[in-house]
Amino acid sequence: MREIKFRIWDKNRKAMYFLLENKYSFGTCEQDRAVSWEDVFAEKADFLIPLQYTGLKDKDGKEIYEGDVFEHNIQDYVDGFPREENHTKIVTYDNGAFWVGDYLLADAIANDSEAEVIGNIFEHSHLLEQRHD
Question: What pTM value is reported for the model?
Answer without folding.
Answer: 0.81
